[in-house]
Amino acid sequence: MQNVALSGTAYQSSTNKSAEKAIDGNKNTEFSSNTCSLTNEEADPWWKVDLGKTFRIHSVIITSSNMIKYNLNGTEVWIDKSDPKEDSTRCGTISSFPESQSWYLPCDNVRGQFVRLKLNGVRNLSLCEVKVYTTDYDYPLPNVAVKGQAVQSSTLYPAGAHRAIDGRRDTYYTESSCSHTEEETAPWWRVDLGQTFVVSEVKVTNRGDCCPERLDGAQIRIGDSLHNNGNDNPRCASITHIPLGNTFSFTCESGKMEGRYVNLVLPGHKKILTLCEVEVYAKPAVAPRRNIAKRKEAQQSSQWEADGTPAGAYKAVNNCNRQTFGEYCCICTEEEWGPWWRVDLGAMYRVSAIAIYNRKDCCSEYITGAKIRIGKSLRHEDNPVCATIHSADLQQAFYCFEMEGQYVSLNIPKKTNLTICGVEVFGSQVEPEQAPDPPPLPSHHFPNVTAQIGGRTVWLVGGRLCWSDALLYCRHHYWDLLSIHSQDEQTEVERLIRNTSLYPLSDHVWLGLRREVMGMKWFWMSGEAVTFDSWKEFPPLFPNPCGGMDREPSLWSPLPCGEHNNFLCQSAPAQTTTKVYYSSNKDPVP
Predict the structure, then answer these.
(1) Is the CATH number of domain 292-429 2.60.120.260?
(2) What is the model's pLDDT at position 10?
(3) pLDDT, average across residues 210-230
(4) What gap in Å lies between CA 361 and CA 160, rounded to an integer?
(5) Residue of 366, 478, 377 lying closest to 412 (CA atoms)
(6) What is the C-alpha to C-alpha distance for residues 274 and 215, in angstroms, rounded to an integer?
(7) What is the dihedral of CA 343, 347, 352, 354, to 10 degrees?
């Protein structure tokens, strides 16, 4: 998708700094750099861009300045038609808009020539950049019901609710593709779509071998509530009559009705509800999305530095805002086979869109052919593709249909360099599933000796367990496996081990150290950062993933997790952190 605002003409309600600065292609957020527009302080200030002709507006990306007093809280985005007599369409409202931030707002391919931003009240309106992305066609909407979960008020066995979302419009009951309730009062059927969607159309297929009148008077209801089994949600439509074996379509609120649950309910006594297929054509309901990649940890396959100019991976997410290599704002790999760049978002996100900024001083072709991937794996080739970059345009955006993942990567599957001058990822965090309770542990205590170290009680435990069992033992009886944060604490632990009355100790003692899977980063299971280390030697690439301390000398080593060693437990620190979740399918050895 291309940013058509770059060739537009900008206007605003009054001028302190030119309206054109918001469409100059420079998203620098430093207000003092004179790259942001600004109105005077006035009632209900506005800014708009004339795109020159009517487009289908897919989305808008807005960048705010670093000036708190010019915040954009409450920004309304409107799409105006070329004919002023036609009604405008609100694309959305961004209620909270922090400084120096970019937000993505989907506009559902609304047709219009003008994009207008306004604030309510007596304020200034300042914009560092407004990008408008358009599309030449409407994406065909999927039938999201086929991935849903269906239930109904009762079942005439074996005609379960799931038959109505099996993707088949077979209309004869004997073909095992129609749902069927018992005869009852107000029977109902419901599909849970899994999340809130904007529903454009519902298609209902009636039975074709008999009884078409049974569906007369059924109501289609859509919403997010399960009160009264979802039958109190807003009404989309009522079915007057669907002839034998026919499929009828119903449009809800001009294709803008939102909800997670789609119900069909048949009011009245002694009713039977039979459905041979229910199709729900919709897209996810997407609220404004912030840039979740800003200053996150990034890596790349190699680093090419011309004349000492650093080109590290972090530059693509550092909000540098200048698209020239010499200004230290772009990444570049060596010429190699399959160069890649990756950002770790730090958690699972649903990604709505990605904006890519290319180099403009030269070598813009070093991005063509790059595949944008999103997923859970550190191996980019294992993650699904959001889009492929086919052009060397300076600014491009790609819609990713709420793909889920922690890692966003770009890689070119050929021998070349890869250059990027900016990546913005717009999305929302996926709520983590609630972790199950860890398995119950025996109440037996091993013998131990204690010491006060770093404001915590530390136990050197006389029993020998593998690393995972030692962790669960500490969490059951104390708080966690020990974490060490300074040389003073390291010295105290060495003293505890050296002077212990427990004998004999194993050659190694477990700590709460763990390495990331397929990574080199070590972390404490207590949730605290590794700010100090005392490795015997720096761990090799992909060493054993569990960390312990050698008995003599008392230095850290990566060890096989299955070793049975003594271990160190600790009480909770003064400032308790959120421990890293860990579970096991067995009880530790008592």
Answers:
(1) yes
(2) 96
(3) 95
(4) 63
(5) 366
(6) 7
(7) -10
Q: Are the C-beta atoms of 247 and 160 separated by less than 8 Å?
A: no
> How far is Cα 290 from Cα 292, in angstroms, rounded to an integer?
6
Write the single-letter amino acid at 362.
Answer: C
According to the CATH classification, is domain 4-135 in 2.60.120.260? Answer: yes
Fold of 448-570: Mannose-Binding Protein A; Chain A (3.10.100)
- Where do you find CATH 3.10.100.10 in the chain? 448-570
Looking at the structure, give the CATH architecture of the domain made up of residues 144-284.
Sandwich (2.60)
Q: Using CA atoms, how far apart are residues 216 and 20, in angstroms rounded to an integer?
A: 58
Q: State yes or no: pLDDT of 330 exceeds 80.
A: yes
Does this model's pTM top 0.90?
no
All CATH 2.60.120.260 domain ranges in the chain, comma separated: 4-135, 144-284, 292-429
pLDDT band at 576 (very low <50, low <70, confident <90, very high): low
Strands, E assignment, 358-421: 371-375, 385-388, 395-411, 415-416, 419-420
Specify the range with the lowest mean pLDDT, choosing from 77-86, 194-203, 251-260. Answer: 251-260
Average pLDDT taken over every residue of the chain: 87
Looking at residue 541, its pLDDT comes to 59
Q: pLDDT grade, residue 454 (50/70/90)?
A: confident
